[in-house]
């Protein structure tokens, strides 16, 4: 559990760092952590009642920049430009293309975006 928390917190330590590379483990730990927190906030909001929707909105604002940054770094890890995030604007297909890129293994060794984070670990 402690390892998961460490990986979840990595994107916050690199809050707006759009350079470099991020391993799959960092990206997916952050994504899963945000999903779980969103569910908990939704449940808490449902129990609290009026005005509780602001909890989810505040959390979304809080994680927006780190989510973009870790997404760009994850794409860099597979040798893709961060501009591939814009494919999300293509309905349905864009989501699946990006999901495929996020599931790819890291480029071995260094690429144009820096050294492999696996080699540094």
First-to-last CA distance: 18 Å
SSE topology string? HHHHH
Mean pLDDT: 90
Shape: globular
- Note the main sheet: none
Flag low-confidence runs: none
Work out the strand percent.
under 5%
Count of discrete structural domains: 1
The number of helical elements comes to 5
Number of strands: 0
Radius of gyration: 16 Å
In terms of structural class, how would the helical and strand content be classed? mainly alpha
List the helices and strands and how they pair.
Blueprint: H1 2-13, H2 24-48, H3 53-77, H4 93-103, H5 117-120
Helix pairs in contact: 1-2, 2-3
Can you describe this structure?
The chain has 121 residues and is an all-alpha fold. The chain has one domain. Helix content is 64%, strand content 0%. It has 5 helices and no strands. It has helices at 2-13, 24-48, 53-77, 93-103, 117-120. The longest helix has 25 residues, at 24-48. The chain is globular. The mean pLDDT is 90.
